[in-house]
Amino acid sequence: MAGDVETGEDRDMLLKSTNLYREFQAEKEEILKHKWIESEKVGYDIGFERALVDWITRHRSAWNQVRRQN
């Protein structure tokens, strides 16, 4: 069983080292920042789904362009 745990941990480490995972994490952080900012503006938690849709429609393209330039 200990071997299975190590294998699972190895898979997790491999996944987290991929560029796709790092991009997902960076995008998720931006969405959470957007959620906080927009929630502060209206005075209540707007929820992740609303923040996600709003961020994708209003900010994702510009954010991706900046990321590609760096």
Number of helices in the DSSP assignment: 4
Largest sheet at a glance?
none
Quote the beta fraction. Answer: under 5%
Shape: flat
Q: Termini, distance in Å?
A: 43 Å
How many domains, as an integer? Answer: 1
Question: Taking all residues together, what is the mean pLDDT?
Answer: 88
The count of strands amounts to: 0
Element order, helices and strands? Answer: HHHH
Helix content: over 70%
Rg, nearest Å: 17 Å
Low-confidence stretches are none
Helix-strand makeup class = mainly alpha
Q: Can you give a write-up of this model?
A:
The chain has 70 residues and is mainly alpha-helical. The chain has one domain. It is 86% helix and 0% strand. It has 4 helices and no strands. The model has no long low-confidence stretch (mean pLDDT 88).
